[in-house]
Structure formats: structure tokens, C-alpha cells
Amino acid sequence: MKRHLQLSIKQLSGFYADGSISPRTVVDHSLDDAIKLKRLNAFIRLSPEKALHQAKESDHRYENKEQLGVLDGVPIAIKDNFCTKELTTTCASRMLSNFVPPFNATVCERLANAGAVLIGKTNMDQFAMGSGTVDSIFGPSKNIWSNDLVDKWHIAGGSSGGSATAVAAGICYAAIGSDTGGSTRNPAAYCGVVGLKPTYGLISRHGLIPLVNSMDVPGIFARNVGDCLDVLNAIAGPDDRDSTTIRKPFRKIDMSFNEELDLRNVRIGIPKEYHCEGLSNEVLETWMKVADLLEDSGAHVHQVSLPNTSASIFVYSILNQCEVASNMARYDGIEYGHRAEIESSTEELYANTRAEGFNTVVKTRILTGNYFLLRKNYHKYFEKALRVRRLISEDFKRVFETPKNDENIVDVLLTPTTLTDAPLYNDFVSQSNRDQCAVQDFCTQPANMAGIPAISIPIRLSKRGLPIGLQLMSKSLNEEMLLRVAGWIEQQVEFDCLANEQIYAARS
Amino acid sequence: MQRILQKTRSYCTVLKEVKKNQKIDKPKENKLNFTELKYPSKVPSKPIKQSFPTGEKPVIDNATIQLLERLALVNLESKEALSTLEKSIEFAEKISHIDTTNVLPLYTVLEDQNLYLREDSVTEGNCREDILRGAKVTEEDYFVSPPGNIPLQQKEKDFTDN
Amino acid sequence: MYKKLLLSKSTSRGFSTQIQTAKTNLKNWKSVVGLEVHAQLLTDSKLFSGSSNEFGAPLNSAVSHFDASIPGTLPVLNRKCVEIGVKTAIALGCRVNEVSMFDRKHYFYADLPVGYQITQQRAALANDGELTFPVIVPGKKTYYKKARLLQLQLEQDSGKSLHDEELKRSLVDLNRAGAPLIELVFAPDLETGEEAASLVKELILILKSLRSCSCKMEEGALRVDANISIHRSGEPFGVRTEVKNIGSVRSISQAITFEIQRQFEVKLNGGVITNETRSWDATTRSTVPMRDKEVLQDYRFMPEPNLPPLRLNTSATDTSCSDIISVASISRGIPELPEDTRSNLIKKYQLSQDVAVILVNEAKLLQYFISIMEHVPGIPAKLVTNFLINDLLTFCNKRNVDIEDCQLSYIHLEDILSALHAGTINLQAGRELIEIIHENPSQKVQTLIKDHNLEQITDEKMIEQFCRQAIEQHEQAVKQYQSGKKKALFAIVGEVSKLSKQKANMKMVVAFLEKILKSE
């Protein structure tokens, strides 16, 4: 086991500073691992030249004691729906398979400014529509925890599966994904890594090719909570180029771990509706145990109710399809992207370009979304969904801020992330995309409705050897509390995401 | 080195040097017993069932299909696709019974924030190369598109079982 | 091509006789006109992006990533656009909404790269305004008309596509894509083409004085579409047609008048008017259908998720919050509007309504008037306005020169009018001076009067001489005058004018002739 991989980002940075390891070496190893673990299909495209160049510069900086910060020289990966200048950004689609953006997404810019080294762009479901990373023109991504990576393998989750599995396999220290209905937390839970969905508006979406503009948030993958925080500190904060960022300046969160969290000041809520049909016994057991642990250490643990929870997937489905119908209208082949050969009329060209460039999932969502947005249907579906969305959001407000009568007020909610451990690919694809999403996104998607922050942390392995994670949610801009509680749980459960036979088998 | 490693967080379980070709030990047994609980659980032991009434099955006629295809410029290619569309609509019907009287639509979670206004100055543009570079077909600094205003040729869809 | 023109001319001539018949048969029928005006705002950068809003930039050079719909780009609202929108709304008597929102309007077209236009449909910037304006119809008395302004909204302009018939393709330039527009939706309160043209003239005056828009219709900075229908008095409105592609103020009147008549004609022949879009063809002077079949269009409006609501401070008292635009402080910055200028003129100078309207319509003329009134003490306003309108303006029109480009300076006009007022020169000399100065603007009036011998003849003896000469040559006219035909005098007066080379003081001539002829 490569020594450096046992380190956290802060430790790695510390070793860079005192010269025990160099960024160049670590990045070399990363690229090497990425190639050795090619069958995971975590990456759509590697960027070795750029990475080595960045590593070299990082080397210089450390030598001259001019390092940019804790992320300087740290290998990271970015999901392929974030625009990277000079590097193709495909969204795993034929439509954008040759698209090279003329600018960098703000997230990419900020990471580069912090010295992080980009190893490559990771695989995803086409245009972020899916929860398995199985609908990509580059093929599905595999879960590193699978017993067999040939034909009985498990999915990595989605839609940011590539990023999740890359971090879980130790190829990079952290990765960026996106989260619209659980697309970061879902694969994080399946792959046994930490997945954070920050508050909507905390991180700029400029350069993130959108799925649902009113819910998308850039997500962060890391192997531990502390690393996750390091990345968050580097990228959070308002951006003039994105009018949906929160204007309040972001103050970096400092969690010195020497300070023990006093759980007696923490109120944990267990929303009963999250025990839904289909929740596996193991996940249920995990949930109960962690709640118990918290209670045992002094936290106030209460059961609460979020009555509109189960309506969330229906609302999400409507809003998602309507936004998709709108956001995809720009793909016509005239200014960029795939262009069909038929030139008889504008309408023919557009129709053919889109037929060739999109997969069935995307096409069906576009049609359905257009149906909902027809003038005669607008109030019945789209506007109705927005009203129910408010009900869901108010459910959260009530438990976090303004409880009724004798209801309890809580700081953090503890729920499962996914209903089961990672399904087998063969089982997963037997269901339709919509049904897959409906089942898998049940626990993750309400947080996107309300725009509140949520994090998934790995707890233990299931009987079949696959990770099980749990989710924590809190009110807007309460990332500090969320991460503290997550960090505490992490220390209790001691889940080692790199204690994985597959990784060694692949490396040797 | 040892001193530094000792200071590392307890999360890092493998502190000793591991030789390159040596396989790692089996994953450590969880020190936590997940079946043992000290307090009565706040997690409900049985799932909370929530039923959503099944509404009428939506019927999408040919006229609507043609309209949607023309508005979306996406073709409904098969019987499966039509069935997916119908199922999605049925899915969406499930919220129609929820009482939303006096509940305003939530367009954005940032509805209480004032829209940021930019100063009126020229800060972008002048990047013709960037703009044209991605286009497959251009003509002397123009984008090229076929003639417009010619209605799409649409065929009747026959998704019957013949 | 020529044959086609001939044909259409004869058809239209035949048409107009038919109109006469039509009009008499359709006396109880009313026409209804509603206008939709799009005005490009005078800002440096575009509505949602920082690319240049300049007219005539090189192809695709004033285009940002956002304008080109590159994925991942987001809109950011330009403060100045909101300020101009609010300013215009206040000037048009609207209620400015405290909260307004943006929507996406979806349709596919080559000049709309992103597949939708960002506009304001459900919650616009302002509503419920009105515009009261004078309508000048030649031959009729000037009257005032009121049109309600239903909605004022901010929205994006589209790019431009050039149609290449030969190679069967469109060439697209996105320079204009995303440029800021305000759309003004007027209620169907108008009845004729002249009313519509007058409304637009007034609107142009207001927009120009506010510096909201350049109003150059030839550059597309101001676009007018008209919705027209006819119905029998007492019955509900008929089916309307939309007329687009109206390129000038004059065309507005022509296009609408034509369309109204066309609809009458259709009705007269027992036909049915279809809800369609028609285009004004300036060559054939007619409206032609724009599309073969009106395709069913559903824009699938959806709220723009990337722009949270726009909030304005609508309270009367200012708060020092710089984040939000204060409607009250914008209101204070509004200059004098045309109608106020008119009423002030009428009050101060006792001008007639018609004259006030003409002066305000031509900014330069108004400036001349004000400066002359200021610098030539005691001069009667009527003298000035008569000269400016009947003589100067006419001269410019004849020579096809815009009054803005007139070569006469304020000093020139002050001097001419002083001389007229003092009786040094007569009106004819004044007219001559206009012509001369237009060719030689560097000369001074006093010099020119001397050099060209333009001084009026006021010497009594000379006048008598001319008069007697004229009388001798017009015996017939003298007899007619003496027998009661007063108008016959003009022939004699005309002769005096000729003899004196238009320099005799006409007042004196007339007085003298009257005296002499009466006594004889």
C-alpha cells in the first residue's frame, strides 16, 4: 500500500512542505493508478500533460516555500459536466463528445488557483440524468468494492459515479461531482466515501452544465470529512457570474480536531418518513446503531416528522423534466456540438441533430417536460409541483427553526442515504431509468428541494462487502455543524475506505 | 516520521509500513456491534406507508404527439418511448390530490435574496474565434443554418401491435 | 419586375374606388388597432451579459459566451437596463411593480441560439400606464387621443439571420443576440393609421428625451407591430391580424390604413378574416401574408430559474440601500416631457395647439423658437412661429433636408426675425435670405441684406410710383375692384410686388391702393 495514500490532504500537504514526498511523485502515481484501474471506467479522459505540468509548478512552489495552501499539489478529478478550458467536456453524450469549452468553470478555476492538480474528467450518466452512471456513451463505471470487476460487478451509483469510484480507489484525493437529486451522495454511499452536497448557492454553478438549475449544486467527494472541508474552503463563496450564489461572503470553516465536539449541545432528528418501503434491513440496522451511538454520547435524539417526504420524488420528476426540456433546447448543432448532415430546413437539422446526439433517457425527459409545460398543462403539473415543493421546504424549516406546538427543534437530521448497498449492474439495468431514480433518490432528493446542505458518510460494509452510508442534513449555511457531527461519527465508526482487496489486486 | 504519523487522526487505521507485494489483512472486524442498542430506537421499526392514489391513465393522442415532437424537435421513436411518456405523466398525477390552497409556488430557494445587478460596462465579447471555433459549419465569420420556416415533415405514428 | 409594379398600381387604383363604395356600405363598422412596440435600450452592454451593445460591430464580435448559448453560462442582469425601464415606465404613467420576475419563452429559430428568449411574462417591470398624445390629420382639427399601456417588460433581442436564397441557407450573426429591449404592449384603443403613427411619434419624443432609446427605426432600434381588427359597432372585436416589418413612422400609417381597408374589402365580399401574421411590403405598399399556414405555437413559458426575483424600492422615502434601485430617485431625474412642454408653450406664448404640436415634434425648431423669443425682445410669437413653420420648415422639406441639418444658426434666425419685426425686410426677402444663408452659412444677415439689396422699400413716394404704374397696367382689375370684387386687388398688388422686385412694403402698398382706388 502506497504510504502516501493513507494520508489526509493536510498531512500530504505537510509532507510536501517538509520535502518527504514531492507532488510530482504523487501525481505520477495517480496517473499510473488511473491506467491500472482502467476497467473501473472512472475517467472519460485523463489529462496527463496538464497534470504533470501543474505538479511541476507545485514542486517549485513548495521548494521556494510559496505553496498556495493545503490543496497545492493534491491530485483531484472533476466530473465531465464542468467546463474545462481546452479539455473536452462531454457530459458523457454524443451531443457534446467533441465540445471544448472556451472557459473554465468557476469551481475549476478556484481549484487551480489553490494549486490542486487535475488528473482527468470523470464518467457520469449522460447529462447527469440517472443514478447509476450506466447511461454514458463511454460505458458504465464500476464500483471498486465489487467482488468481480468482469461480469458480476456492482454499480458505482450516479450520476457522479466516476468521481466517487475514483476517490474510493485512491486514484485521487478528492473529486468534484454535481448533486441535483442525490447525484453526489448516492455514489458516495455506494462507493464508501464522503459525499457533500453544500447549501444551494454556496458554490458557483458558472461553468456547470445544468440539469435542473434551481436544484443543481457542485458536490465534493473525499475519503474523510476533513479533506472534504479543505476542498469546500477552496471553492465556496459568491460569484458575480452566477446570480444564484448567496451574496454573503464565505468565511472559511476551521475545524481544529483538537476540539472535541460536545454532543450535549447537539439535537439530532430522526425523520420517521425516511423509513420507507424497500429499505434494507442492514441499512435500517446501521441507521439505528448510529442514532443510538449519538444518544449514548449525550446528544438529544428525537423522532420528527417531515410529512411531505414521499411526495418529493414526484415533484422532483416533474421539475426535472421541465427544466431538462428547457435546458436542452440549445442543442441544435449550429454553434457547437454534434451536427447532423441533413440540411433541408432548420427544423429538420435540429431534429436530426438531437435524435443522433441524445440517448433515449434524455429524449423522453425532453418530451415529457414539454408536455408538462404546454399552456394547458402548466398549472396542473409544473406550478402544482412548485407549490408542493414549498410544502417540502417548509417541513424542513419547521424542524430546524419554527416547530409547531410540542414538536422538537433539531440541529441535524440523520437518515439513510440509499435504501440498499450498491445493486448489481445486471439487476439495476432491468429497471427503467425513472424507476431506478424514484427508488434510489428517495432519501437524497428532498434536500435538493429545500436547498439545504447534506452529507453522506460511509459507516460499514454490508454482508456482501459493499459500503453502507448514512446521511446528515441541516439548515441552510449550517455546513460547520453538519461537518462536525459527520466528523464525530466518522471517528466512531472508523471506516477505512482503502481497506479494499480490489485496490491491491489491481495495483499488483 | 513515526511522530508525525502518531499525530494523524485515528481514522487512518494502517500506521505501519506495508511492503509492496504484501496483501493487506482482511478488513478489520467492526469494533461496533450493530445489533446492540442501548436506548429505545427513535427510528421507526416498520416502514411508514404512504399511498398515492392512482389517477386516470393518461391518453396521448397522435395530435399531441405531433405537437410535442414539433415543439421539442425530438422524435418519439418507439412504442416503449410512448409508454414511458405515459407512465411519467401518470407518475406526475400523483401529487394532484395534495392540498396546496394558499401555498405559493417556490420558484427558487433564494426568493428572499435581492437579484444581483451588474454595472453597465463592456467586459466580455471580442472573442469571435472562441465563439466560432466550436461550430462544425461556418462561413466567413457567420454561423450557417439551413433555411427556416419550413415546417417539419411529420409522419403519423403507428404504435399499434401489428 | 416593372410589369409587376404596373399591375399592382392599377389594382390599387381600382382598389381605392372600391374602398369608397366599401366605406359607405360599412358605416357602422369600427376598426381597432393595438400596437406592440419594441425599443432597444441605450446601454453600453447587453441585458444579461457584458458584451457590447453597439450597433454595427464586426460580425460576431460583440458576442459573449453567454450570448452564443455556450453550455454552463448564466445570465447576470444589467443595472442600467432596469433603471431605463423604470424611468420609461414612470414617464408613461405606469405602476412600477415592486417585485418582477423573468421567464423563458421557448421556440426554435436560427437566430435564437439558446432555444428560448428571456422575457417577463407573468410579472413584468410595470403595468397599467397610459399615453395621451396629439393626432394631426391634414385637413382636420388636431385632437388628443389616449391609449392604455398594458405592460412594460424587459427582454432579450435575438440575433440576425441573412437569408441566402441561392445556396438555400441562412447566415447568422449573433451581435444583436441578448441586446436589451423593452416591450410596450398597448391596449387596442386606437382606430386609425394616423392615430397609430401619432402615438409612435409621441413615444419617440418621450424615449429620446429620456435617453432610453435612439429610436432609429432604420437601424431597428424601434420596432412597431400592429394588431388590427374590424367589427360592427356594438358587437365584440373581430378576428385580428398582426402586421410586422413596418420600417418607418410614415409606413405605420400607410400599413395600418391599408390593412383596415383590406379587411373591409374581405368582409364586403363575404369573406372571413383569418388570424394571421402579415408583413408590410413597402414596394407594393400592401400587407402580404408572412406564413402559408399559421402554425400552432405554444411558447411553454417557464420561470427563468437562474434569476431570482428583481426587487425595487417603491417607497416614496429614500432608503440608503444601494443594492436596490429606488423608483423615487429615478422619478426625480425625469426631464420635462413633451406634453408638458406643449402646455407650457401654449400658456406662455398663447400659441395654438397645432403650432405647439409642430414645434415640439421638431426639437430643432423648438430650440430656434425659444432662443429667438429670448433674444429678440417684444417680437410677437406668431410672427416667429409663422416664419419657422411656413417658411423655414417648408424650405427644408422642399430641399429634402432634415431640419436637424439646417445650416442656419440661431444668430441668423434671430437677425432675420429682428429685421422682419422691425420692418427692415419683408417676408419675401426673409425667404430669400434662408436660401442664401443655406448656401453661405458663414455670412452675416446684415451684410447679406445690404449685399443683395433686400431692404424693404418704405419710401412713400416710391410706393406711390409703383402703385400708379400697376394701376395703369391693370385697368380691368381696377374696374372689378371698384365694382365690389375685393379679390381683384391682389392682381394689382402682385404687379406692385413685381415692379418693386418684391421689396415694397406690402402693408403700405395695400393701404395706399385701397385709399387711391376708393377715391377715384
TrEMBL record, chain A:
Which SUPFAM superfamilies does this chain map to?
Amidase signature (AS) enzymes
Amidase domain: from which residue to which, for each copy?
32-483
Q: Does the record's keyword annotation contain Nucleotide-binding?
A: yes
- Kindly give the InterPro entries that the UniProt entry links to this protein: Amidase (IPR000120), Amidase_dom (IPR023631), AS_sf (IPR036928), GatA (IPR004412)
Annotated catalytic residues: 79 (charge relay system), 159 (charge relay system), 183 (acyl-ester intermediate)
**Example GO biological process term?**
glutaminyl-tRNAGln biosynthesis via transamidation
Gene3D superfamilies linked: Amidase signature (AS) domain
Gene Ontology CC terms: glutamyl-tRNA(Gln) amidotransferase complex; mitochondrion
Which positions carry the signal peptide feature in this UniProt record?
Answer: none
Q: Which domain of life is it from?
A: Eukaryota
What one GO molecular function would you report for this record? ATP binding
Location(s) in or outside the cell: Mitochondrion
User: So what does this thing catalyse?
Assistant: L-glutamyl-tRNA(Gln) + L-glutamine + ATP + H2O = L-glutaminyl-tRNA(Gln) + L-glutamate + ADP + phosphate + H(+)
Q: What is its EC number?
A: 6.3.5.7
This protein's UniProt keywords: ATP-binding, Ligase, Mitochondrion, Nucleotide-binding, Protein biosynthesis
Question: Any idea what job this protein has?
Answer: Allows the formation of correctly charged Gln-tRNA(Gln) through the transamidation of misacylated Glu-tRNA(Gln) in the mitochondria. The reaction takes place in the presence of glutamine and ATP through an activated gamma-phospho-Glu-tRNA(Gln).
Assembly with partners or alone = Subunit of the heterotrimeric GatCAB amidotransferase (AdT) complex, composed of A, B and C subunits.
Family to which this protein belongs: Belongs to the amidase family. GatA subfamily.
HAMAP family the record matches: GatA
State what protein this is by name.
Glutamyl-tRNA(Gln) amidotransferase subunit A, mitochondrial
Q: Which gene encodes it?
A: LOC105232578
Automatic annotation (TrEMBL), chain B:
Q: What does this protein do?
A: Allows the formation of correctly charged Gln-tRNA(Gln) through the transamidation of misacylated Glu-tRNA(Gln) in the mitochondria. The reaction takes place in the presence of glutamine and ATP through an activated gamma-phospho-Glu-tRNA(Gln).
Return the EC number.
6.3.5.-
Please report the name of this protein according to its UniProt entry: Glutamyl-tRNA(Gln) amidotransferase subunit C, mitochondrial
Its chief place of residence is mitochondrion
Keywords of the record, alphabetical order, are: ATP-binding, Ligase, Mitochondrion, Nucleotide-binding, Protein biosynthesis
| Gene behind this protein | LOC125780262
Please write the reaction equations for the catalytic activity of this protein. L-glutamyl-tRNA(Gln) + L-glutamine + ATP + H2O = L-glutaminyl-tRNA(Gln) + L-glutamate + ADP + phosphate + H(+)
Under SUPFAM superfamilies, the record lists: Glu-tRNAGln amidotransferase C subunit
Question: Could you tell me which species this protein originates from?
Answer: Bactrocera dorsalis
Family, similarity comment? Belongs to the GatC family.
> How does it associate, per the subunit comment?
Subunit of the heterotrimeric GatCAB amidotransferase (AdT) complex, composed of A, B and C subunits.
The record's annotation in InterPro entries points to: Asp/Glu-ADT_sf_sub_c (IPR036113), GatC (IPR003837)
PANTHER family linked to this entry: GLUTAMYL-TRNA(GLN) AMIDOTRANSFERASE SUBUNIT C, MITOCHONDRIAL
User: Where located?
Assistant: Mitochondrion
Q: Which HAMAP family match?
A: GatC (MF_00122)
Q: What class of enzyme is it?
A: ligase
From TrEMBL, chain C:
MF (Gene Ontology): ATP binding; glutaminyl-tRNA synthase (glutamine-hydrolyzing) activity; transferase activity
Q: Which domain of life is it from?
A: Eukaryota
User: Which SUPFAM superfamilies did the record assign?
Assistant: GatB/YqeY motif, Glutamine synthetase/guanido kinase
Q: Where in the cell is it found?
A: Mitochondrion
**Enzyme class, spelled out:** ligase
What keywords were assigned to this record? ATP-binding, Ligase, Mitochondrion, Nucleotide-binding, Protein biosynthesis, Transferase
The reaction(s) catalysed by this protein are: L-glutamyl-tRNA(Gln) + L-glutamine + ATP + H2O = L-glutaminyl-tRNA(Gln) + L-glutamate + ADP + phosphate + H(+); L-aspartyl-tRNA(Asn) + L-glutamine + ATP + H2O = L-asparaginyl-tRNA(Asn) + L-glutamate + ADP + phosphate + 2 H(+)
The residue ranges of the Asn/Gln amidotransferase domain are 367-517
SMART domains according to UniProt = GatB_Yqey
Q: Say if the entry is tagged with keyword Ligase.
A: yes
Record EC number: 6.3.5.-
Any single GO BP term: mitochondrial translation
Is Nucleotide-binding tagged as a keyword? yes
- Quote a single Gene Ontology cellular component term: mitochondrion
Which Pfam families does the UniProt record give? GatB_N, GatB_Yqey
What NCBIfam families does UniProt report for this protein, alphabetically?
gatB, PRK05477.1-2, PRK05477.1-4
Entry's family note: Belongs to the GatB/GatE family. GatB subfamily.
Its quaternary structure? Heterotrimer of A, B and C subunits.
The UniProt function text for this chain reads:
Allows the formation of correctly charged Asn-tRNA(Asn) or Gln-tRNA(Gln) through the transamidation of misacylated Asp-tRNA(Asn) or Glu-tRNA(Gln) in organisms which lack either or both of asparaginyl-tRNA or glutaminyl-tRNA synthetases. The reaction takes place in the presence of glutamine and ATP through an activated phospho-Asp-tRNA(Asn) or phospho-Glu-tRNA(Gln). Allows the formation of correctly charged Gln-tRNA(Gln) through the transamidation of misacylated Glu-tRNA(Gln) in the mitochondria. The reaction takes place in the presence of glutamine and ATP through an activated gamma-phospho-Glu-tRNA(Gln).
Under which name does UniProt file this protein?
Answer: Glutamyl-tRNA(Gln) amidotransferase subunit B, mitochondrial
Q: Which organism is it from?
A: Bactrocera dorsalis (Oriental fruit fly)
Q: Which gene encodes it?
A: GATB
